[in-house]
């Protein structure tokens, strides 16, 4: 039989043993059928507590109290078990009973004073220490604690006065000072975190809730506050996850349920907008972002951020006036944002407001003269302004500047069908021929990647002026040509 090798380390020295590691000793269990007296139960409770088995210790002490309900020591022992594992409320309840049975039990007053202070009950804690001083007037350090708690009582009166009228800003200085005295108080820290949420000081709320949850990860009210802090900082998805996690512990928690439903709706719209943007569905994306804004139109982070996203997607989609309006709203929320100024310039270009686009980029350049993004945007705006004085081939075909080859071909085909000789009365044929020449010239340039590139860069482009149906036929099936005054022009359809 192989025996496990165990290393025992004591005082920095390690000894090897071939003995099997000892299993952790379990708290003793009473023998079956044996009726336990108070002494037995007290001993079993003490042994269980010594082994760290809080549940079993409390079980024995509870049975002990049933046997000896008027013995203050029994309540003290169960309170000690509760205190060992941070069940402060239960501990205070047992200490209350112990003091009721023995009003001179000093150690009960001392521990209750400490626990009350932890709950932010500075007045109750002060009273307990005053009672200790009555029992033992010369006990060291108690006078200082009473003085400190007196200050805390005054500060908390100021906090309560401010909070009664909803003035968290006025309450904060007193809360800060009270927490300097009662730093371990969860109740005071919760109050400060709640006020921090209401005043938009989300980082303070994050710090306070982290400290609370580090010692009590199941504090659902703290989880709710922390989720709100994340939401206030714009971390909407993390906030939803916090609310969801809390609801797993208590599906009926009203605050968590309300917050989860509200923020989940907002997150859903943001995610819908992001997916639409990824699919180049620019207007749909902007509508989803607008819906998210409408669900909480006073959010200090999300509202400016979502207005910017609206501006970005509509600029990408070259949605002209929609882009201009969206970018103007985004700039209203963040007037010094250089990138937004550039996006507004791009929006002006999409809306064919070339001179205004130049001015937008010039204003941006005043703020950041070394910005490459601004320099390139300004040069592009000037080039587009120059080009606007020439024929606008995109406008002639009725397509956007980011139109693909298929879009250009489709637009040309539609216009060419409209100008077919069979559809034009004789008296309108001359005007139709002029229009047809325009669409033919536009298609010749925009269907040729090289020519289109030159045109987009503002370079001169040579146009041959061919009839569009001379080679390759017409995509739709009729042969066609216009012949006016004996002059035939041809155009190759690509």
UniProtKB/TrEMBL annotation:
Coiled-coil regions listed: 340-367
Alphabetical UniProt keywords: Coiled coil, Repeat, Signal, TPR repeat
TPR repeats: 38-71, 220-253, 338-371
Signal peptide annotation: 1-19
Keyword presence, Repeat: yes
Presence of the UniProt keyword Repeat in the record: yes
Pfam families with a match to the protein in the record: DnaJ (PF00226), TPR_16 (PF13432), TPR_19 (PF14559), TPR_8 (PF13181)
Domain J per the UniProt entry, residue ranges: 392-459
SMART domains reported for this sequence: DnaJ (SM00271), TPR (SM00028)
Name assigned to this protein: J domain-containing protein
Species this protein is from: Lotharella globosa
């Amino acid at each position: 039989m192989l025996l496990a090798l165990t290393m025992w380390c004591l005082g920095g020295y390690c000894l090897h043993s071939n003995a099997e590691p000892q299993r952790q000793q379990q708290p003793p269990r009473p023998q079956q059928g044996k009726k336990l007296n108070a002494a037995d139960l007290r001993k079993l409770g003490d042994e269980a507590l010594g082994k760290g088995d809080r549940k079993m210790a409390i079980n024995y002490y509870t049975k002990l109290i049933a046997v000896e309900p008027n013995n203050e020591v029994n309540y003290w022992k169960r309170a000690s078990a509760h205190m060992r594992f941070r069940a402060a409320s239960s501990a205070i309840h047992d200490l209350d009973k112990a003091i009721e049975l023995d009003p001179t039990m000093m150690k009960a007053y001392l521990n209750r004073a400490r626990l009350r202070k932890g709950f932010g009950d500075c007045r109750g804690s002060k009273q307990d220490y005053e009672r200790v001083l009555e029992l033992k007037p010369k006990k060291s350090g108690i006078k200082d604690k009473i003085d400190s708690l007196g200050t805390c009582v005054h500060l908390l009166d100021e906090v309560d006065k401010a909070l009664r009228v909803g003035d968290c800003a006025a309450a904060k200085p007193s809360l800060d000072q009270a927490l300097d005295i009662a730093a371990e108080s969860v109740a005071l820290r919760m109050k400060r975190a709640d006020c921090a949420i209401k005043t938009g000081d989300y980082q303070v709320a994050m710090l306070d809730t982290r400290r609370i949850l580090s010692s009590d990860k199941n504090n659902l009210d703290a989880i709710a506050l922390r989720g709100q802090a994340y939401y206030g900082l714009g971390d909407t998805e993390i906030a939803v996850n916090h609310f969801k996690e809390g609801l797993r512990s208590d599906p009926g928690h009203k605050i968590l349920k309300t917050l989860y439903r509200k923020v989940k709706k907002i997150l859903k719209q943001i995610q819908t907008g992001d997916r639409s943007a990824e699919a180049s569905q620019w207007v749909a994306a902007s509508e989803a972002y607008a819906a998210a804004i409408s669900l909480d139109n006073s959010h200090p982070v999300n509202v400016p951020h979502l207005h910017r996203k609206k501006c970005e997607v509509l600029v990408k989609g070259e949605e002209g006036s929609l882009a201009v309006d969206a970018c103007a709203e985004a700039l209203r929320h963040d007037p010094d944002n250089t990138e937004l100024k550039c996006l507004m310039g791009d929006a002006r270009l999409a809306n064919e407001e070339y001179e205004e686009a130049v001015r937008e980029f010039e204003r941006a350049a005043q703020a950041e003269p070394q910005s490459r993004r601004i320099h390139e945007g300004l040069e592009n705006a000037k080039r587009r302004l120059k080009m606007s004085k020439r024929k606008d081939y995109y406008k002639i075909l009725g397509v956007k500047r980011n139109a693909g080859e298929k879009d250009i071909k489709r637009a040309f085909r539609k216009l060419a069908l409209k100008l077919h000789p069979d559809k034009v009365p004789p008296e309108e044929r001359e005007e139709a021929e002029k229009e047809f020449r325009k669409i033919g010239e536009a298609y010749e340039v925009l269907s040729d990647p090289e020519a289109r590139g030159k045109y987009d860069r503002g370079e001169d482009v040579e146009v041959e002026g061919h009839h569009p149906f001379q080679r390759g036929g017409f995509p739709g099936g009729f042969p066609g040509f216009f012949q006016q005054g004996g002059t035939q022009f041809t155009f190759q359809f690509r």
